[in-house]
Amino acid sequence: MPPLVDTFGRLHDNLRISVTDRCNIRCFYCMPEDATNFQPRAEILSFEEVERFVRVAVSLGVNKIRLTGGEPLLRKDLPVLIQKILSIDGVRDLALTTNGVLLPKLAQPLFDAGLRRINVHLDTLRPERFRQITRRDDFDNVVEGIELCRSLGYGPIKINAVAVKNLVEDDIVPLARFGRERGIEVRYIEFMPLDSQGLWQRDKVLLMDDMLAMLAREICPLEPIPNQDPRAPATEFRFADGIGGVGFIASVSKPFCLNCNRIRLTADGHLRYCLFAIEEMNVKDLLRSGAGDEEIADLIRANVRAKWIGHEINTKGFVPPPRPMYAIGG
Q1: Exposed, middle or buried, 308 (CB in 10 Å: 0-12/13-18/19+)?
Q2: Domain membership of residue 120 as a residue range
Q3: pLDDT at 236 over 90
């Protein structure tokens, strides 16, 4: 079959799948503390439906899969889905993004199912600030889960940290040192307008260049990693002393839209060509109405063809997506 190429010539081989919109923490930049407006369980795709969609997507050239949420570890029997996806011929890479709270319990069964690549969300190494950001007291569980993943042999392990200005400046360097000591890459993510409470403002974004300056001043200079994949969301650097590196997802200051290779499937079965997309295409109805694989393939092709040039965060014309991050999938 012809590859998934949009009208701007971008090849799509990367699929992000949200397996639930529920979460067990309440990061202020993502969810209100009393969030309850989740999809009814009957509206969430079954593992069999997800597996079928992946098989069709792989037949069109998709070979990299990432499972997200909400918090994906809340999805019962998630190792079963991991086994199903890894059994599909053509899946070259499977990763998972988690807040890490349940890793002490689930790291072993996930590893036994075949998962090796994992990103753990952790904005700070200060328990009191963790509580301030997440409104939960689970810091020790997250750190325990990271150490357990290390001992089990996960790799690579990455830490995702959202960079909110006037909040986490004094967390940037300690997180990098934490990663350097453990062979973990920390990825700093510029605060994006995806919260459900309308809190985002551009002057609340801690920018990549400012973080680079902090790290160079407090640890040592950084140099770009040569021959990076231009389609990867993170810009990666290594420390000049040869000990580890960091990455930056600079969606606000340095958008990577022109190289984007991702499509997204929400937990309730809607396909999106961009995290910030305004429109979605309903896959669930096809999956549940007896549609053939070619109809699903046509919908995927149509979604990719409709993809815009970029999200326009830095323009007056930017419109936030109608759904918050936890409902879209990280």
Answers
A1: middle
A2: 14-328
A3: yes
